[in-house]
Write a structure and sequence with these properties.
four-stranded mixed beta sheet, alpha+beta, single chain
Length: about 260
């Protein structure tokens, strides 16, 4: 029968490998990486240990790792994931560090220090977000909007970027931010639609809010379902549903307020 061992009995190298794997997995999970990517990266790092029998379970809110030793003793570690937000830069950096580590191009100490710095690094302003204005302009025109409508949609989309960095970072990462972004953007568009009756709300709402639709989360849920990871699949699909509901409620709330004012 397998028995749990105390931390002090764990060899220093194995302990460092376990810490690196947990840190890499927590960064990937909190950056909204796919489940298979998190588990595969952690398993590759843990394979550096002399003890090849490892089990990794990645869920949306927790990581669990078990290493079984030659004498059938084992150690299990868990890591709580408290927040999730998309950060493709951190996902890319963890991939680069894990590849360098597993190919002996980086030492354990170097990999650990790089991951610690990465985990404490504040979320950078994604340059893709600065493209929300032209993206919203284009989607609005595709929806039948004119020049003025596309311009207003672009401004509303840029407002959502500003709101993303004004809201506190400790609030819920699914419903609340999407709701507030939608309220502000929809209120802005609805206000101008009252001032300029010739502009149409439908293409402007489409253009300004389409970037907020949780397409990546929904796709990750489908991919996890196809791979048999039903717990994470259900979590991702519920998260996508919550965000979609936030968009609908936010737009409806803004239109209600504007209609009440005017």
């Amino acid at each position: 029968m397998e028995t749990e061992i105390r931390e002090g009995q764990l060899h220093s190298r194995d302990k460092e490998i376990l810490q690196i794997a947990l840190l890499a997995g927590s960064i990937l999970t909190s950056s909204a990486a796919e489940t298979y990517r998190v588990e595969d990266t952690m398993e590759r790092i843990l394979a550096l240990s002399d003890h090849q029998e490892v089990d990794v379970v990645s869920l949306l809110t927790v990581l669990m790792v078990t290493i079984t030793f030659d004498d059938k003793t084992y150690i299990t570690a868990t890591k709580r994931i408290k927040s999730r937000f998309f950060d493709l830069y951190k996902i890319q950096r963890v991939n680069e560090i894990s590849r360098a580590l597993t190919s002996n191009q980086m030492t354990l100490d170097e990999a650990y220090m790089d991951l610690v710095l990465l985990s404490t690094q504040k979320k950078q302003v994604p340059y893709a977000n600065l493209m929300n204005f032209p993206f919203a302009w284009g989607f609005c025109m595709m929806g039948g909007g004119g020049i003025l409508e596309s311009f207003l949609a672009g401004v509303a989309a840029f407002l959502t970027v500003i709101i993303d960095y004004v809201l506190p970072k400790n609030i819920d990462q699914t419903f609340t931010p999407a709701f507030f972004k939608t309220v502000i953007a929809s209120f802005f568009l609805a206000f101008f639609s009252k001032l300029i009756p010739s502009v149409r709300m439908d293409p402007m709402i489409l253009g300004s809010l389409i970037m907020l639709f949780p397409g990546t989360t929904f796709t990750n849920g489908i991919r996890d379902m196809m791979k048999g990871d039903y717990l994470t699949a259900g979590g991702n699909l519920l998260s996508a549903l919550a965000t979609a509901l936030a968009l609908a409620f936010g737009a409806g709330f803004s239109l209600l307020i504007i209609n009440w004012i005017f």
